[in-house]
Design brief:
It is built from ten helices and ten strands. The chain is of the alpha/beta class. Helix 1 packs parallel to helix 9 and helix 7 packs antiparallel against helix 10.
Length: about 325
Amino acid sequence: MDYRKLGRNGIKVSEFSLGAWVTYGGQVGEDVALECMKAAYDCGVNFFDNADVYAMGQAETVMGNVIKKLGLKRKDLVISSKVFWPTGEGPNDRGLSRKHIMESVHTSLKRLDTDYLDLYYCHRYDPEVPLEEVVRAMDDLVHQGKILYWGTSEWRAWQISDATALARQWGLYPPVVEQPHYNMFQRDIVETELADTANEHGIGLVVWSPLASGVLTGKYNDGIPEGSRMADPDYTWLQALITEDRITQVRQLTEVARDLGATVAQLALVWLLRNPEVSSVITGASRADQVRENMKALELKEKLTPDVLARIEEILGNDPNAEA
């Protein structure tokens, strides 16, 4: 495992991290979560991602319990959570008001059984709350020692720039991380605007859904298997990700991966690290062996030669910066 700085900031995170979305407290139980986190930690992962809304708080509880059961030292971990989405029925149980941010972080800390979060994300931009209120609330949390750094998730470049400018104007802590949706099929916003903004402000990108909800594993090449996430009635909306063109591309990418002695999933994961603005790729897993297989992708870094990258680009045909 190699570690990258979060932009130009001092904290270092593992190139691959492990996230709790969909799985912890939902798809898998605590025993499986323990096996997955142990496998990740044994492979060098130090960064574990979560959110207050994942499984309506259960994901945080499970992760906190697992950390305690494994006896992991808090100083060796980078733990993140997020705030924005509804966590209750009340009018203040959502968004980025100072009230909801303060109450949400306290609840997250309690569920995770920790005194502080390394990273705390604004899970979406909130047009109903003045940006100064958001930045000042996050700055206060840093001064209170409840969070060490804060960032954004699924914000546009101009929103991040506005928050950074406001923080610098008033001498407040600026955002240092953005968590965007990024994979071989989903490239436009990251590569046309966020990468430049991250470089300009010294922000790190921590990317999610690197395997396009499993499409880039090849498991949907012959239809939707019984027992898979897309067969779950709660996730049928993901079926729109499966198109004939994408399946054709996945089959072609599988050939590239085989030539490198790897799986298409491993190729898709390591391909994201070619972007220097990416600090960490959030992986997900419902079994410990999936974790270990994902981590093997790191062995491919030196195999991503210009020729291999060009071959991938030819298959994808979606480089947003390519000349028309």
